[in-house]
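Appendix B: complex inputs.
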Amino acid sequence: MPPSQTTSSNRTSDEPEVGTRAIEAGLDALDSTATLPPGPSLGKRFVRTVLPPIVFLAALVGVWQLAYDAEIKPSYALPSPGDVAEVFWERVTDGSAFEAIWTSLSRGAVGFALSLVIGTALGLAMWWSRWLRAAIGPIVSGLQSLPSVAWVPAAIIWFQLTDAAIYTVVLLGAAPSIANGLLSGMKQVPPLFDRVGRVLGLSTLGRTRYVLLPAALPGYLGGLRQGWAFAWRSLMAAELITYSPQLGQGLGQLLNVGRELSQMSLVITSIALILAVGIAIELLVFAPLERRVLLRRGLTTT
Amino acid sequence: MATEQLTVREPRVRPAARPSADDGRAAAVRVSGVSQVFERGRPPVLDGVDLTVAPGEFVCLVGASGCGKSTLLNLVAGLVQPTAGTVEVSAARPALMFQEPALLPWLTASGNVELALKARGVKRAERRTEAARLLSLVNLADAGPKRVHELSGGMRQRVALARALAQDSKVLLMDEPFAALDAITRDVLHVELARIWAEQQLSVVFVTHNVREAVRLGTRVVLMGSRPGRIVREWDVELTQPRTIEAPGVSALATEITSELHREISRHAA
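Resulting structure:
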């Protein structure tokens, strides 16, 4: 084995032998996060994420069928999966399912948009004013745990059986979550970011616009997601109770029709539709939005 | 141990109370009689500190933890107002670099630099090209579109340096900017910083508790004592640049400053 190379240290120049730029470029290449290995193949992803819920649902229907066959409950209380599928199909083919979904969803969207504006304004106001935060902070947090169905009687007395009554209930259900999400997002912004803004010479407004709000985005998104869940729940509660021809037929009202006709198949169909809309909004809107924000910031890898 | 062969002049030692350098030119930074009390009844964090930084000077502040060197830097940056005394800075807004890169994670490397340009009022059309120029100055010409989390620690700190340079201030304040980096990366960044300091004719105030780093980079090293924070002694570093952290001259002066630092720290032993 050759002796290890030793270099005498009495070089006259202090200049490094290899150019700094070359060392730097080498370090950058070594340090940089290696490109992530390619994600699992489409087939694997199907097996991992799509297959399990399908298998579970199939098992659920199987157990249901067994319970029906064993006649645990009379058939008017526990219809067979086939009966429900028939009613479901009827509602889909005659278009009344889509009508109900559209009625509820458009109402939910308007109510949520209203909550978005008011909740965001409220969150910002609570951030700016320490006094306001102390004064209404506990109430806003408390409102989150108040079932919004409790507002239905009051809303009906104020606005009679109109869309305004429903929007009021949705607003009182969703706005506190959005305000709280924004506020907690802003509270979690590292103070260092604000110092950066000040060092760069940004005004208070500039720091809010370019530093504080973007930094608070993940928390805000969490609030929006929760706000939508509350809005949807509040909407169903309101629709279930308020019932009048001028309100049209939303999913909640459809559920109520099922109850009044003692038609369990329609009740289950309505619940399935309500659940499906909730899952669809989560999967199509909030999950991708959150994933995109977190990926950009390196807060998640999947 | 064999005595080291010094190839440079012995460093000249100056008394602590340095006469204010009134040579006609305005100082880059002038701190006069500054005291800082954060809590009433507690000993001041800084007590009667005088420090003048001439244009083009590279002043390194060294001292034990809690000697108020970061506080002094924040005062010069204008982030804190002094309890007593005055702080004058020739630049309207000195640039400041922290120990953490403090890059905004939702922006790209270029976006971070562009934000500093935007804050300065640079027009949108010019921001992109100016940011690219600044990034290539720190040898990161290709990193512009990368996200912060895709960069290594050394690269992030270079982006932070580019962002500080984007403030176009002749006064650059640095608060232990290389403390969290590995030794190899740090050596390389020393070379980059020394080059940029010379090219851009910056006045630098550099806080560190690495004495060798201070001697490696500075034209002057200021030793601060703790409780209350004050200036104990100063050394002019009369070694030629470029120099390396291993150079015998750097080593000799660092040894001297370190023993003075140890003496200062041991005063606080019960």
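Chain A touches chain B at residues 14-16, 20-21, 23-25, 27-28, 31-33, 192-193, 195-196, 198-202, 206, 210-211, 214-215, 217, 293, 296-299 (CB under 8 Å).
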